[in-house]
């Protein structure tokens, strides 16, 4: 049984309440172009999607993004920085905290309508304060419509990448969409997700039958896999990346814009957050070693916040309440190092 609690206005109504100002639309359009040019190969910069595992409170996220905006001025000739503002990120078992979209105050009960409005304010203020538009995870495909005018990058998680609705909605997104490999690590399943997202589709979305043209910027994200015993198995190494490249080339029907983003955390690091630094360094070395590897690896995902580590409840300002993250000092050093080695 479903108990009706709050009637949620349509995405069009919510966007009309708080539209994107003209000057911010121009900033976002330019950030979209920069990110897309990396995926297509028009630019040889690297894309770095970086920020907290879950954006659970506005003020520390805005503080973090403001620092990232200043850092961007130092690295913008070599990197495209996209702040990770994941607003629907739950804890792994799906019980308790489910992200700002559902729970704008992590210590209080769910309030989805307030959550939606809070997210739009957060994403707008983020662009204002940093000049950078954000990335978010499309955990719940229907929610994407409420923020589609504010995001430069969309991620589809490992537990969602096999889901048909995620694939279909991704086909209508105009910005890059990164599909993480499924938890099993299956490369064929990953390529099927990308193929579906790059293809035109017709399906029901909200109260409409909609048609899409396909998203040529859908691409692979390698985040490691989990075996049948719960062990984390990394897949950022040279061999797996080259297997993905071969799968792109051999895809029946063809795929556009071969691209891989390396997720430096999750099963690649076994959630040992400090390992993200070493993983990024190894990938950078492999880009020097092999031209094909360099061409397909387009960037990194890095989990990072103001204070390193994580906490169960929101006590320490700027520390994750989900997965552990790098602290700001390590993040700044890592981003400067990546920029130097591109």
Summarize the structure.
The model has no long low-confidence stretch (mean pLDDT 95). This protein is globular.
Describe the protein.
The chain has 342 residues and is α/β, with parallel strands linked by helices. It has one domain: Aldolase class I (TIM Barrel). Helices cover 38% and strands 17% of the residues. It contains 10 helices and 14 strands. The strands form 4 sheets. An 8-stranded parallel sheet has the order 2-1-12-11-8-5-4-3. Strands 6-7 form a two-stranded antiparallel ribbon. Helix 3 (58-75) links the parallel strand 1 (46-51) and strand 2 (79-83). Helix 3 packs parallel to helix 4, helix 5 (164-170) packs across helix 6 (187-198) and helix 8 (275-289) runs parallel beside helix 10.
SSE order and pairing:
Blueprint: H1 11-17, H2 22-40, E1 46-51, H3 58-75, E2 79-83, H4 112-130, E3 134-137, E4 151-156, H5 164-170, E5 177-180, H6 187-198, E6 202-205, E7 208-211, E8 218-222, E9 225-226, E10 232-233, H7 238-250, E11 260-263, H8 275-289, H9 291-296, E12 297-303, E13 307-310, E14 319-320, H10 328-341
Parallel strand pairs: 1-2, 1-12, 3-4, 4-5, 5-8, 8-11, 11-12, 13-14
Antiparallel strand pairs: 6-7, 9-10
Specify Rg, calculated over alpha carbons: 19 Å
Count of strand segments: 14
- Summarize the helix and strand pattern as letters: HHEHEHEEHEHEEEEEHEHHEEEH
Q: How would you write the strand order of the largest sheet? A: 2-1-12-11-8-5-4-3
> Quick one: biggest sheet?
8 strands, parallel
DSSP helical segment count: 10
User: Which structural class do you get from the secondary structure elements?
Assistant: alpha/beta
Number of domains: 1
CATH topology, which one?
TIM Barrel
Q: For this entry, what is the oligomeric state of its chains?
A: single chain
Helix content bin = 25-40%
Strand content: 15-25%
What is the highest CATH level, the class?
Alpha Beta
- Distance between the terminal alpha carbons, to the nearest Å? 54 Å
CATH architecture: Alpha-Beta Barrel
By CATH, the superfamily comes out as: Aldolase class I
């Amino acid at each position: 049984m479903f108990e009706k609690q709050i009637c949620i206005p349509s995405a069009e109504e919510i966007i009309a309440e708080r539209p994107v100002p003209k000057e911010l639309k121009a900033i976002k359009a330019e950030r979209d172009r920069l990110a897309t040019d990396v995926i297509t190969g028009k630019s040889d910069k690297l894309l770095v999607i970086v920020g907290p595992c879950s954006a659970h409170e506005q003020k520390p996220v805005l503080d973090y993004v403001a620092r990232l905006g200043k850092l961007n001025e130092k690295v913008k000739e070599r990197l495209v920085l996209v702040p990770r503002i994941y607003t629907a990120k739950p804890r792994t078992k799906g019980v308790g905290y489910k992200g700002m979209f559902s729970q704008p105050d992590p210590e209080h009960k769910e309030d989805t309508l307030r959550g939606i409005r809070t997210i739009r304010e957060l994403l707008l203020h983020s662009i204002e304060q940093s000049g950078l538009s954000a990335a978010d995870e499309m955990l719940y495909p229907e929610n994407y419509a409420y923020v589609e005018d504010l995001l430069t990058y969309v991620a589809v998680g490992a537990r969602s990448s096999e889901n048909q609705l995620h694939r279909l909605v991704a086909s209508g997104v105009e910005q890059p969409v990164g599909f993480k490999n499924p938890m099993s690590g299956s490369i064929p399943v990953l390529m099927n997700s990308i193929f579906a997202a790059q293809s035109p589709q017709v399906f029901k979305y909200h109260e409409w039958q909609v048609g899409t043209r396909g998203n040529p910027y859908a691409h692979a994200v390698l985040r490691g896999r989990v075996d049948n015993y719960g062990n984390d198995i990394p897949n950022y190494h040279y061999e797996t990346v080259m297997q993905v490249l071969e799968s792109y080339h051999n895809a029946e029907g063809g795929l556009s814009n071969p691209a891989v983003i390396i997720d430096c955390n999750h099963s690649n690091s076994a959630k040992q957050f400090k390992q993200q630094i070493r993983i990024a360094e190894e990938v950078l070395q492999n880009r020097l070693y092999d031209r094909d590897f360099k061409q397909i690896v387009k960037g990194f995902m890095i989990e990072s916040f103001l204070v390193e580590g994580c906490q169960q409840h929101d006590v320490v300002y700027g520390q994750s309440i989900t997965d552990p993250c790098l602290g700001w000092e390590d993040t700044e050093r890592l981003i400067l190092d990546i920029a130097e080695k591109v």
